[in-house]
User: Which sequence fits this backbone?
């Protein structure tokens, strides 16, 4: 099977970051890492490819930088990568992002597209579903377990009360939750091999996608500082104050 895994490079969460003073957009450094949630999607893609003697192609959108994050995923075992690096996409919303990624996926050809449920620097959680709509294929979301039966994909979808069992024939888009599999660690051999694996860098126009970001950040302000909590001395009636606070919060 031809497996596409959507991945994203993000600034290292352990490092300080800055916003552009004019646009208020995040200034993305050249050194970026693979979004930790994407490691589960890469591992799931590798497992499906190994079962079907298929291939795994990474698809990403954003500033390429030094491609550190992409090579981390290649070192796990993916075969190649396509990175859409286009300055005109700065400030793109989820719909534009999904349209661009769909263009790259369609150009590569696919049987299964895998993504995390959401990126840790955006948290929109809707891009994979939008990709499925553009590709006109089913979306199996929030998978905590994925099984392959011939050309049929079956998942256990995490819910509030347990899980649903959902299946569909390929082609399909799947989103996986953390813990769906245990991601492998790149070996030294894999790290060295990643240096020579093909990475295709393209622009939106080369994919035939018309860009209309149309998104601006008007202003930003610091989050309010946390205030000190109320200290209640219990003289035997502290429970009354607790009940009052719970009523104010409409908990009871």
Assistant:
């Amino acid at each position: 099977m031809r497996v596409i895994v959507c991945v994203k490079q993000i600034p290292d969460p352990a490092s300080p970051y800055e916003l552009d003073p004019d646009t208020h957009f995040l200034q993305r450094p050249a050194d970026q890492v693979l979004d930790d949630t994407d490691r589960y999607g890469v591992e799931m893609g590798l497992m499906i490819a190994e079962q079907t003697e298929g291939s795994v192609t990474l698809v990403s959108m954003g500033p390429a930088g030094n491609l550190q994050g992409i090579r981390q995923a290649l070192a796990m075992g993916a075969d190649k990568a396509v990175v859409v690096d286009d300055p005109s996409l700065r400030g793109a919303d989820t719909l534009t992002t999904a349209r661009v990624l769909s263009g790259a996926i369609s150009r590569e050809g696919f049987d299964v597209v895998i993504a995390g449920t959401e990126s840790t620097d955006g948290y929109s959680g809707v891009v994979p579903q939008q990709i499925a709509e553009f590709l006109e294929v089913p979306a199996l979301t929030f998978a905590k377990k994925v099984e392959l039966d011939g050309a049929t994909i079956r998942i256990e979808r995490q819910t509030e009360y347990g899980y649903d069992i959902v299946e569909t024939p390929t082609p399909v888009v799947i989103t996986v939750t953390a813990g769906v599999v245990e991601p492998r660690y790149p070996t030294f051999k894999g790290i060295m091999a990643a240096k020579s694996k093909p990475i295709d860098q393209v622009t939106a126009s080369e994919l035939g996608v018309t860009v209309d970001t149309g998104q601006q950040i008007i202003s930003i302000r610091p989050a309010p500082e946390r205030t000190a909590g109320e200290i209640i001395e219990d003289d035997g009636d502290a429970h009354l104050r607790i009940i009052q606070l719970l009523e104010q919060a409409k908990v009871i």
